[in-house]
Amino acid sequence: MLTLKGEPLTDADNDSWWTVHRGESPVVATAIHDGHGLRADLQALMALADDERLREEDPYTAYILQDLANRVIVHRSRFEVDLNRARDGAVYTDPSQAWGLNVWRDALPRDRHEASLVLHDEYYRMLRSMLQSIERRHGSFVVLDVHSYNHRRDGPDSDPTDPAAAPEINIGTHSMDRGRWAHVLETLLDAFRRFEFRGKRFDVRENVAFQGRGEQTRFIHEHFPQTGCAIAIEFKKFFMDEWTGEPDFEVLEALRALIASTVPDLVKALDGRQ
User: Fold this and answer.
1) How far apart are CA 241 and CA 249, in angstroms?
2) Considering the entire predicted model, what is its pTM?
3) How many CA atoms lie within 13 A of 116 on its CB side?
């Protein structure tokens, strides 16, 4: 797998868990499926090739959110531990959990399984502490939980998923208290729908391809029910070739600008609630 600079991942990247950037803002963005790193004791057990893993990861999501002052970038692959699944399903042990893929050559030893769950535990301890700090400073906050999804699953030359079922930007709100956070959500949706790229506006819809049922948004709404608004954002992989991993930097730059453009309006929306 290549980085954006075209350089291969190093052992240090495989050893890193995540990077946290903290700044003066109540808006946070996360890229918890951007990572491709895999710890050394799992590499010989992994049945999937690098490109197979990459296809189900969310490369370049960290690039899209890099202009936000508060951001969390996870460096480990979701095939080591999926931070957007509940703890009891965060390590894939059956193809039904992983798009029909056989992840491991043999059954994953219990000690390796438990070692992977340490990251899940530590991530949510870290996230809770970070959000408590932002809550103390600002009173309330918004978390943009940034992901991406495939739309050419049948092969590189296949027809893409019907656009009726695959918006360019899918907003997931399953665990959100809509009555409490409708104003913030509508602010984000309006900003996304106003944005123009290549003479047109993005197809932005709510709960179509995904409903925002991931663990991170659920966790935030459970632990910060009065102060934390978490919104799952799924970008269709129209910014890259999902089979080769080749990015379209013009699209990526547009999505980067889009995410950055939402921050002032989201801050105003939060201020209006307090």
Assistant:
1) 11
2) 0.94
3) 28
- Closest by CA position to 266, among listed 236, 231, 232: 231
Q: Is 227 part of a structural domain of the chain?
A: yes
Residue 228 pLDDT exceeds 50: yes
Phi-psi region of 38 (alpha: psi -120 to 50; beta: other; left: phi over 0): beta
Q: How many CB atoms lie within 10 A of CB 253?
A: 14
Burial of 69 (0-12, 13-18, 19+ CB in 10 A): middle
- Domain contains 5: no
204-206 and 169-172 beta bridge pairing: parallel
> Residue 130 is which amino acid?
M
Number of domains comprising the chain: 1
Print the domain residue range for 179. Answer: 11-273
Residue 146 and residue 171 in contact, taking contact as beta carbons nearer than 8 Å: no
User: Per-residue DSSP letters for 116-150?
Assistant: HHHHHHHHHHHHHHHHHHHHHHHS-EEEEEEEEE-
The answer to whether residue 183 is domain-embedded is yes
Asked whether residue 124 is domain-assigned, the answer is yes
Question: What CATH number did the domain enclosing 18 receive?
Answer: 3.40.630.40
pLDDT tens per residue across span 45-68 = 999 999 999 999 999 999 999 999
Which residues, including other chains, have CB under 8 Å from residue 118's CB and lie 6 or more apart?
A: none
Looking at 8-111, which runs of residues are DSSP E strands? 18-21, 27-31, 70-74
Answer yes or no: are the C-beta atoms of 72 and 89 closer than 8 Å: no
